[in-house]
TrEMBL record:
Heterododecamer (2C3:3R2) of six catalytic PyrB chains organized as two trimers (C3), and six regulatory PyrI chains organized as three dimers (R2). Residues 152-299 form the Aspartate/ornithine carbamoyltransferase Asp/Orn-binding domain. InterPro entries: Asp/Orn_carbamoyltranf_P-bd (IPR006132), Asp/Orn_carbamoylTrfase (IPR006130), Asp/Orn_carbamoylTrfase_sf (IPR036901), Asp_carbamoyltransf (IPR002082), Asp_carbamoyltransf_Asp/Orn-bd (IPR006131). It holds the Pfam family OTCace. L-aspartate binds at K83, R166, R220. PANTHER family: ASPARTATE CARBAMOYLTRANSFERASE, ORNITHINE CARBAMOYLTRANSFERASE, MITOCHONDRIAL. The gene is pyrB. This is Aspartate carbamoyltransferase. Its EC number is 2.1.3.2. Catalyzes the condensation of carbamoyl phosphate and aspartate to form carbamoyl aspartate and inorganic phosphate, the committed step in the de novo pyrimidine nucleotide biosynthesis pathway. Keywords: Pyrimidine biosynthesis, Transferase. One of its GO terms (cellular component) is cytosol. PROSITE patterns: CARBAMOYLTRANSFERASE.
Length: 305
């Protein structure tokens, strides 16, 4: 594996399978009464979050602590960053503290890539702008694999606000690497201009795609990133692209429903669908800790430990 995890596209199939298989081993530890391993004792992991996050930050913190690493949580609010300190100065401060890994979430696409040039430790991208979120794609793939077995040839449909979704881009790249067939379904206004170069199909008709899907992943409509009218109304969006009970019934009986969270219940997904037995949404949160343990383990100590 590379020293950093910045893009899902950087992972070869062997890299991706190594992470998923390692996570499977570590999942057994999570089932024990004592969940800690001494693997990264003496290592320091810094969570550097310039954007608000609950699940991802807590997930990385739990993962590092379960591997016995020391964790420093750095929030941009109330720090020198809010006083105008640059990313590079922050990076040099972390370097002076001896950070072995920096987990970064930043509003600017490409920030983790720049950070990797300034620190000696490993950099893990926890979401940069509308670019990528590779560990989310890994935990999604892990969740799919636990429910469905091999992902080779599986049909995965990703629905909704692809334009603003770093999760969608990372999932398309990783699932293609793992041999799945991905179809994006969204209004034309919520697809990026570059989508034609992505390794996936594109459809505007959710009802036509559902009966052929093994996995349906609903994306949150990111209203906070929208500064224009991307669709006529929330009701109209929900009518055409929401996963309600009737659409859920059109899916194959063994197909699963996913959502990276947080959800707009009643808009992109109905509450009864989100809470159904075929939904993996709660599992995805638990699997996030396991996958992030695997990533930190392999980057900081795994194979040489």
């Amino acid at each position: 594996m590379n020293r950093h995890l910045i893009s899902a596209g950087d992972l070869t199939k062997d890299d991706a399978l190594l992470i998923l298989d390692t996570a499977e081993e570590l999942a057994r530890v999570s089932e024990r009464s004592i969940k800690k391993l001494p693997t990264l004792r003496g290592r320091t992991v810094v969570n550097l979050f310039f954007e608000d996050s609950t699940r991802t930050r807590i997930s990385f913190e739990a993962a590092a602590k379960r591997l016995s690493a020391d964790v420093i949580n750095f929030s941009a609010k109330g720090s020198s960053v809010s006083k105008g300190e640059s990313l590079k100065d922050t990076a040099l401060t972390l370097e002076a503290m001896g950070a072995d890994a920096v987990v970064i979430r930043h509003g600017a696409s490409g920030a983790p890539h720049r950070l990797a040039n300034w620190v000696h430790g490993s950099v893990v991208n926890a979401g940069d702008g509308t670019h990528e979120h590779p560990t989310q794609a890994l935990l999604d793939a892990f969740s799919m694999r636990r429910r469905l077995g091999s992902l080779e040839g599986r049909k995965v449909t990703i629905v909704g606000d692809v334009l603003h979704s770093r999760v969608a881009r990372s999932n398309v790249l990783l699932l293609d690497t793992l041999g799945a067939d991905v179809t994006l379904v969204a209004p034309p206004t919520l697809l990026p201009v570059s989508v034609g170069s992505w390794p996936c199909e594109v459809s505007y008709d959710l009802d036509a795609v559902l009966p052929k899907s093994d996995v349906v992943m609903m994306l949150r409509v990111q209203k906070e990133r929208m500064n224009a009218a991307y669709f006529p109304s929330e009701r109209e969006y929900s009518r055409r692209y929401g996963l309600d009970r009737d659409r859920f019934a059109k899916m194959p009986e063994d197909a699963i429903v996913m959502h990276p969270g947080p959800m707009n219940r009643g808009m992109e997904i109905a509450a009864e669908v989100a809470d159904s037995a075929r939904s993996t949404i709660v599992e995805q949160v638990a699997n996030g800790v396991t996958i992030r343990m695997a990533v930190l383990y392999l980057l900081l100590g795994g194979e040489s430990a």
